[in-house]
Design a protein that fits this description.
Layout: H1 15-25, E1 34-36, H2 38-44, E2 47-52, H3 62-70, H4 75-80, E3 82-85, H5 89-101, E4 105-109, H6 115-123, E5 127-130, H7 135-149, E6 152-153, H8 160-176, E7 182-186, H9 191-200, E8 208-214, H10 219-225, H11 247-256, E9 259-263, H12 265-279, H13 289-296, H14 298-301, E10 305-310, H15 317-330, E11 334-342, H16 347-357, E12 361-368, E13 378-386, H17 390-402, E14 406-409
Keywords: Lyase, Pyridoxal phosphate
GO molecular function: L-serine ammonia-lyase activity; pyridoxal phosphate binding; threonine deaminase activity
Protein name: Threonine ammonia-lyase
Length: 413
Amino acid sequence: MATLAKTAAPLPVSLGDVMAAHMRIRDAIVRTPTLISRTLSELTGATVYLKFENLQFTAAYKERGALNTLLQLDAEARAKGVIAASAGNHAQGLAYHANRLGIACTIVMPTNTPTVKVVQTEGHGANVVLHGDTFDAAYAHARLLEAERGITFVHPFDDVRVIAGQGTTAIEMLEDVPSIDTFLTPIGGGGLISGMATVAKNWRTPVEVIGVEAELYPSMYNRINGTQMPCEGDTLAEGIAVKEPGGVTAQMVSELVDDIVLVSERSLEEAVSLLLQIEKTVVEGAGSAGLAALLQHPGRFEGRTVGVVLCGGNIDTRLLANVLLRDLARSGRLARLRIRLQDQPGALYNVARIFDAQRVNILELSHQRIFTNLPAKGLSLDVECETRDRAHLERLISAIRDAGYQVSLVELA
């Protein structure tokens, strides 16, 4: 991987900093399990260990860096309080631990933040300020309030205290599973991977560190490799949809991270679905990025002992339902077939008999007589159905064609 110019100066976060953070926060966070996934190991060709950071109280690793920062504030800073700009996991992690420690916490969010996120953050005791239509506007307002009120701004990733706190994830993983030789870590702003790489490269046996970004937001990849791919789009992994990585984190990633791979939206969706189906655990899009990399680049990790951080589990339930249904459709277990019929008595009945004979469950029917390019006596019938697998679906399509009907499968993107 091409890198930024390396410096002779020591990096801003050391293994000692991460070890100190570990001692500082360990009694107030969940030591989440690192467990082998035998099924995912068989599926990918690697030995896969999962770190269940979605089991933290606020369902994300962000608590680690937030708490490490809060515990290092002096009495005056604690009395004045803290502030952050975030509509995600950083907001909830900071709010929860600030409230627990009796420190006033203000979170600035864009005005279009979903109400459920506002309510959840307020539920942790924070004062939520809605400002601007974008994160950048909310961030700028938070820095203004910081200056006006003399309160401490807690950056979500570009802060050495935050980075050291996030790195405690790696300490736990390597203490629990010393055989791990590769970390697959999501990259947004770069705080988590910077902390984990600090541990990995200074551990008893050095560990390879591979970062993972969504293809739609390759910001750190661009920074390190000198590319200019666009950072935009509606990604499932909104938790790592960062347009500009941090300055501190970019330096550390350049020095310590071995490679960065990009993953598609389809791989992210598949990873979220597999984690729920196989591991019975709910993971958000950003949290599934490590597994998505294993699925999309299996040859890169075959034979390795890989530690994957499931860094968060905060996903909208309706979005999760859509992801699961889309995965069923791609696997052939759900399908929409478009069948051309003659508009005459018995047409629907005759088609339904084919579904019955093939033991396929019909979920929904939709006729189209008007908005179609078929002749006036023709109609288009869409049938949503449930099959056992792709082979079962192919047998159904063959049976429909054998009966003399034109049929096509409505494919997902």
